[in-house]
Amino acid sequence: MNMRTNRDRLQKLLTEIAAFGGTDRGGVSRLALTDEDRDARDQLKRWFAEAGAEIKVDTIGNMFFILRGKQLHLPPVMTGSHCDSQPEGGRFDGILGIIAGLEIMYTLRDAGIQLERDLIVVNWTNEEGSRFTPGTTGSGYFAGKLDRDKMYALTDRNGLTLGDELERIGYKGQEDFDPRPMYANFEYHIEQGPVLEQRGIRIGVPKGIVCLRWYDIEVQGVPNHVGPTPMNARQDALYAFALMGKRIYELGLAADNVVASVGEVHPTPNSRNVIAGHVHFTIDIRGWNEQETDRVCQEVERSLIELAKEAGCEVAINKVWEVDRAPFDESLIALVHSTARDLGLTSLDMVSGASHDTIYINKDTPSAMIFVPSIGGRSHAEVECTSWEDCAAGADVLLGAVIKTGNSLNELPAIDRSLY
């Protein structure tokens, strides 16, 4: 008989953690290293300690909750996600994967089961990147892909640094924790898109995460009074941005499974009767095919220069973040499918268009992800929602995958990553 998690307890835990940074409209604003993030972290520490876990915090603030197995020499199994949110974001994004890991520890405790391998549930620092850029900071540092001192020096809009904020909230650990090599890594997450709901599928099984390119763009024009300045004598940075934003959208629309989006837009001086002299904006470009994604990037860069000249402005283009796509381990993908099937749940192969911490962890640890439907395909918004039934179904799949890998004494089959 397949074990299942406690749906009522899972719902209770998810509801209670959503109070930290909870908004009036049912969402969550829990940006990385804010007081709300600190309070949620403190609650996680209390719950995981109750579940019998050891707790370690590394120098970038990643939290590791360790349930010891019988054979400490065996490489551990890891799961987890992130606790931080977007501003006015949702209450399932990221935190679902952590709370499901907590519920699994409770379930194992209640059943008197000790796995052969250690089980580690992790809360990665600053996955979202909405306060400090780049995102997936904690997992990137853990994987050796991001420099810690450079990450400490990242600043938010108020000039506060990541390192100082880590220290302020009490989550700047004194030493690092490295459980590698690890046997397997699973990240459980909401889909953040419409596919599963539209097709009536309960479990999504991504074959990997798309590659990602982030840009910061500075458009420089000439500020002036809107009244006396003729339309044909303006160097309007906001007009230049309008041309650029349209072109970026069109290039994404015409591409082969690549998306190109403008996120932040900050005109200066941002006054109703002043022609904007400067605009800062961001671009996010991502896709599964790296060659096609980079072709779109080149077209975007070329267009920005062309359109800035057309509007009589100057443009500075800065690519601030670039991450390769992450193909997942085929044996773990198959394991997730078979676990869902054993539970009577439908499953679907797909690709993750959203970035996740596993994009870094996957580089040296066999990894897979588990998706559950997002109602209306909405995420990064207060309306973000997944049914409690689907939350529990995904947690049950994660539980089954954790038990199978956590009790396995075999090596995972070797996969030739050059084949996919």
TrEMBL record:
<protein>
    <submittedName>
        <fullName>N-carbamoyl-L-amino-acid hydrolase</fullName>
    </submittedName>
</protein>
<feature type="binding site">
    <location>
        <position position="128"/>
    </location>
    <ligand>
        <name>Zn(2+) 2</name>
    </ligand>
</feature>
<keyword id="KW-0862">Zinc</keyword>
<keyword id="KW-0479">Metal-binding</keyword>
<feature type="binding site">
    <location>
        <position position="189"/>
    </location>
    <ligand>
        <name>Zn(2+) 1</name>
    </ligand>
</feature>
<feature type="binding site">
    <location>
        <position position="82"/>
    </location>
    <ligand>
        <name>Zn(2+) 1</name>
    </ligand>
</feature>
<dbReference type="InterPro" id="IPR010158">
    <property type="entry name" value="Amidase_Cbmase"/>
</dbReference>
<dbReference type="Pfam" id="PF01546">
    <property type="entry name" value="Peptidase_M20"/>
</dbReference>
<feature type="binding site">
    <location>
        <position position="380"/>
    </location>
    <ligand>
        <name>Zn(2+) 2</name>
    </ligand>
</feature>
<dbReference type="InterPro" id="IPR002933">
    <property type="entry name" value="Peptidase_M20"/>
</dbReference>
<dbReference type="GO" id="GO:0046872">
    <property type="term" value="F:metal ion binding"/>
</dbReference>
<comment type="similarity">
    <text>Belongs to the peptidase M20 family.</text>
</comment>
<dbReference type="GO" id="GO:0016813">
    <property type="term" value="F:hydrolase activity, acting on carbon-nitrogen (but not peptide) bonds, in linear amidines"/>
</dbReference>
<dbReference type="InterPro" id="IPR036264">
    <property type="entry name" value="Bact_exopeptidase_dim_dom"/>
</dbReference>
<dbReference type="InterPro" id="IPR011650">
    <property type="entry name" value="Peptidase_M20_dimer"/>
</dbReference>
<feature type="binding site">
    <location>
        <position position="93"/>
    </location>
    <ligand>
        <name>Zn(2+) 1</name>
    </ligand>
</feature>
<keyword id="KW-0378">Hydrolase</keyword>
<dbReference type="Pfam" id="PF07687">
    <property type="entry name" value="M20_dimer"/>
</dbReference>
<feature type="domain" description="Peptidase M20 dimerisation">
    <location>
        <begin position="213"/>
        <end position="309"/>
    </location>
</feature>
<feature type="binding site">
    <location>
        <position position="93"/>
    </location>
    <ligand>
        <name>Zn(2+) 2</name>
    </ligand>
</feature>
